[in-house]
Amino acid sequence: MTPNENTSRAPEHTPRLPWAKLSPEVYKAMVALDAAARQGLDPVLLELVRIRASQINHCAFCLDMHTKDALAAGESVERIIQLGAWEESRHFYTPKEIAAIELTEAVTVLTDGFVPDEVYEKAAEHFEETELAQLISAITVINAWNRFGVSARMVPGHYTPGQYKH
Question: Which domains does the chain have, with CATH numbers?
């Protein structure tokens, strides 16, 4: 069932603007940056990070994309569902995944103006320096995608895995 097949649901909103079409060079640069940032990262871990940042940033379009990509990569529905309450569901994740999720939250929510040393140090215990640099890059890139998605009001519900990558 697609989002508009059930008439008892609210109507689908329309996007504010097709930013990728209007700024094609920025879009191409973002796609290239995204491809570079995910190099060497475990695909399932990457999707957990993308989902968590998208939850925090309220980007429905990215949540739709990355939950579907996570499922396609072999992630379980249960772990995706629990991600929003990961602190109470730690037993679903490895210590390395928890360190990545904590780092994602710290980089995504900069209200205190910095990433706490203890969060960074915990991540550094689980990731080699190059992998940690890639993880920070991937977190930064998904935050940028989230901002495009939320600002342009991109419409969730139509993505199929493999349709396009970001």
Answer: 20-152 (1.20.1290.10)
